[in-house]
Amino acid sequence: MMTTATPPVNENYKAVYLTAEDLRVAASILYNAYHDDPFFIAALHKGDRAQYEQKLRGAIREELHTLWQEEQALIGLFEEERLIGLACIVTQQVPLGEARYWHWRLKMLLSAGWQSTQALMKKESSILEHLPSTQCGILQFIAVTPIEQHKGLGKRLIQAVMSWCDEQPELEGVGVYVTQDDHAHLFSSMDFAPIERLVIGGVPGELLFYRSPEVE
Fold it and tell me: Domain N-acetyltransferase, which positions (predicted)?
């Protein structure tokens, strides 16, 4: 699951499922990684930086806990016992987009506000419309802690996602929506094929898809 030709070569790295005790650190990693993400800025920033940061923290926290409660795949990258990155995958076995549960909507509404909650649901709906089938997952989040970036660990995480996908007989593959060209290039180099250029919430991006070899 962790095999990669990308440095660094370190046997202390491991990719395993997160536990409940890891969620606080995981939320912090995601917050730092997505702080300047164009989509989240467009969806959550309404002119007040402090309010934006509060909304982002709340939205990430609620989504992470929802994925945990729904038993979705939360894959952590550890260096020995230290969490340094994670990837969060959601499948269509749980309601997404406009079909989100009312209790998710309520919690997200309290954390991020109504317009921001609507923007998050519309993003998911747009992605779902362009995936090959209902038997596909979405890579909701992927991040490496800032001090560990530029070491090839992003590729390790993507490879862990691909390995997880290959082990799920009911899944055709995993889609990811990216808004930055360097991220698109990274996923393209890891066998994610472009599906569609999308503009979501006024932010242009690209939807890429990894298809499991089992369904090719």
Answer: 63-183
Please say whether the beta carbons of 86 and 63 come within 8 A.
Answer: no
Nearest to 209 by CA among 134, 123, 139: 139
Domains of the chain: 13-211 (3.40.630.30)
The strand ranges marked E within 80-172 are 82-91, 136-144
Lookup: tokens for 50: 């402090």
Split at pLDDT 50, 70, 90, the class of 11 is: low
Alpha-carbon gap, residue 108 to 194, rounded angstroms: 30
Q: Is the pTM higher than 0.85?
A: yes
Chain-centre distance of CA 80, in angstroms?
23
Residue 17 host element (H or E): strand 13-17
The two structure tokens encoding residue 6: 């990308």
